[in-house]
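Risk register update: the risk of archive-format incompatibility is retired. Evidence:
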Amino acid sequence: MQLAIRDHKILQMKAELENRKKILCVKRHQLKNNAKENDLLKFVLTDYEKYNTHIISQKEKQIMFLERLNDYIDNINIDLKLTDNKLKESKQEQREILKEITYLKDEIDNLVEPTRDNNSDNSENNYNHINSNDNIDE
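Archived output:
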């Protein structure tokens, strides 16, 4: 409930700020018109325009900064997407490597298994059989 009240007050303050900006704009135009007739108002107008120029300059700097910040965030998002894609690719490659490891282990097991089935008396023959050139696929 307090959050809603706070939000309502913020909206009221923003509306009041906009109203005051409009009033200042109208008064600036009045000042310009009156300065034509009154020399003292010319100095006030000059000071006001210096102040106004300074405010505009500050706002333009803020815009430039925010645009740079926005570009930086866009670049980070692009990099993150690229990183995410690279991560997905590397995980896929890792799965393929694990499949290959499993396949190679199975081949090793298949090559070793027949030798385990034979008697231990023939273990030397089995060792020679496993290491023979006949078993190498070229």
